[in-house]
Amino acid sequence: MKNLNLTEWALRHKQLVYYFIFITFIMGIFSYLRLGRMEDPDFVIRQMIVSVSWPGASARQVEEQVTDKIEKKLQDTPGLDYLKSYSKPGQAVIYVTLDDNVAEKDIRPTWLEVRNMVNDIKGTLPQGVTGIAFNDRFDDTFGCIYALTADGFTYEEMRDRAEKIRRTLLGVPDVKKVELIGVQEEKIYIEMESNKLAQLGVDPNLIVSTIKNQEAMAASGMIETSSDNVYLRVSGMFDNTDDIRNLPVRANDRTFRLGDIARVERSYADPIDPQMYYNGQPAIGIAISMNAGGNILDMGAGLNKAVAQIKKDLPLGLELSQVSNQPKVVETSISEFVESLREAIIIVLVVSFLSLGMRSGLVVALCIPLVIAGTFTCMQLMGIDLHKISLGALIIALGLLVDDAIIATEMMSVKLEQGWDRFKAACFAYTATAFPMLTGTLITCAGFIPIGFAKGNGAEFCRSLFPVVAIALLLSWVVSVFVTPLLGFKLIKTKENLGHDTDIYDTKFYRLFRKTLVYCLCHRKLVIGATIVCFTGSLFLFKFIKQEFFPSSLRPELIVEMTLPEGASLQAAKDEAQRFAENLAGDPDIENYSYYVGKGSPRFVLTVEPNLAANNYAQFVIVAKNLEARKALHEKVNTLFAESFPNVHGHVKVILTGPPSPYPVMLRVTGYDHDKVREIARQVRNVIAANPHAANTNFDWNEKSKAMHLTVDQNKARMLGIDSQALAANLQSHLSGAALSEFREQDKTVDIVFRLDRQDRQDLSHIPI
Q1: Does domain 144-185+271-329 have CATH number 3.40.630.10?
Q2: How does residue 69 score in pLDDT terms, banded at 50, 70 and 90?
Q3: What CATH number is given for 557-664+677-689 in this structure?
Q4: Is the dihedral of CA 460, 461, 462, 465 positive or negative?
Q5: CA 68 – CA 54 distance, rounded (Å)
Q6: How many helices (H) and strands (E) does the chain have?
């Protein structure tokens, strides 16, 4: 440091330093405009979902024949942390979670290997296992969600309009994916009365085969002429529901129209599909996710422009409302940072001007935007976007980066007041302070190293804290040795003819400071004792400070989860959700609310984990007007669950700042004996519930779902030519319905479903076998 004086080099090459100052400002401005904007930093979600369907199997059969086999195979997954599975009647859901040490670049190849391993054992699974699905895009975040509500329109008309809106929004820059939520699938039901069929002597299987053959898609041949290929098309395909009603059915030497012996109705799926509601009205949700590295503010502006045009074209009775607006949240965060930056500069200016004087304070103030501009440039080069963590790091750095400039300026001012010439005073500031400043800067940066190189989602979430702080502080040191002396050389003026022997510290303030310092040095035991007492007292008071690594978010959303007993129908969940919504109507603390029946909301924030579909589940997303309103709503909802919803398990939570976690404390009890596991789990629950700090203690697996067992006399069944498979298939088709064919209409297909009349479905004795 003594042999190479960087300040001296800067003063001898002023024009080059001015050039780099100008270039840094220009690059910083362009980098700031091009930096990606998002609410939360990206972190890798090392989780994949494997779901398998086995229609007709019980939960125990699914567990033993499907889930266990797949889990045993997946235990060979490289980098596996743990497997978690749910076995339900007819379905297995397996969560594959990788260890935090698995690098991001290895995750996609690992998911491909998981697919291959499951496909390798597909042949060992029982017959009838279908629908093996893999979801390795569990981290898609739909930051913008719109709700399309209607007055006087059907679900299908809403879906049709929502599909057109989806195609329009896909053209907005930075939009990656647009999904529709709460769509109700249309079906054409053919319902027959068993009594009428018996009177006419019509075999239901005859009707089934007639419909299948009529709508079957088959090639009819081609005639090759001298100039063209002419394809033959056979008429008779269904064009509308009237064609289905008019379908002739030949039975017992008689011909009937299908509409004469059955009711043909175009309706929606029964039981209903998962639904979405906005402010109590049925809605079709339109969820939008952003491309990786995109600017959410630009996307938000593009969406606002597109939505404004869409609203102009909407028919009277349709309304498009925004449910989640992440661009606005990010814009608020950016505005808060700019405001904090402005306040920091003003504070530094005031303190610097009061303590250093007008010109010395101006030197310090001019260095701040230069360091910030350089930091933005480095962030752009390193791919660090503007989000909660990087903005927080910049605000932390603002309080530290001015120290080096103040030290260099103060040292130069002191030497100038002692009569030194400008060039020598500036060079001495480097000789005396450059190495101590660099050492202090590196020590401060080292304090953030554990965050920068730790493992886990929490560390990934905070990872940008270390590089941003380190960049800002190192740049502040570079500026203090190159730029600060140069600006001080031009701007700082001091009193003339003070001489080398002038004592600039002979003032009232410094005399009082010296007297205090001498007293402390002469009474060392007293000072050290007081220090120990203060330190001990601080340790005692530390326990009164709330400790949490990731605090609650400042977003106004309140998330309310409603879980009915296992086996409850989706209709029951819908009824309870509607009853809950009635209690929210007209609440002055609510800006708006949406709720989802049969499935949770899409991931509208990266730190919120979506819930998979479940018939006994409903979720509310309530947007409060402010944080005080959110707190009042939290208390109101807890009171509602305690007083008005005894059969519903309610869970109220706010969005966290950090990786998601359903509950603060979660324990797992495992074992081979199901009853013993339940018994131990109840004991653990009782111990936890006894803790006064614990609330809402519950299980995620305990209840048994209801089932009706039909005992078949196998001897009689064989004599009648009926086997168990045929009986089960008949029950399935007559009670729940069986898809016979497809009705093709424009760009969609509608299943044609055969089942018994509703009254007959309530009485098993009327089912024809």
Answers
A1: no
A2: very high
A3: 3.30.70.1430
A4: positive
A5: 14
A6: 27, 21
